[in-house]
Amino acid sequence: MIITRKELVKICDKYLADELSKEEMIHFARTVMFDDDGRYDCEDDLVEEILSQWDSAKTQSKINKTSIQFLRNALNDLN
What we know:
By secondary structure, this protein is mainly α.
């Protein structure tokens, strides 16, 4: 499965609608980043960087409604 920018927008939408928790976002990012079976691939470096940040303990504290809304808008503008 290729993780695209559009998929990240959908994930952001679910988070903003309280259908997905911060912990679930982190778990998803970790699953994709440490996929040894080749089930997941990132569309581009931007998608990989975003997932890497969601997985990073140093930046997880910055995951909140405001930052995810900003990210969602930026990703939407790029599509």
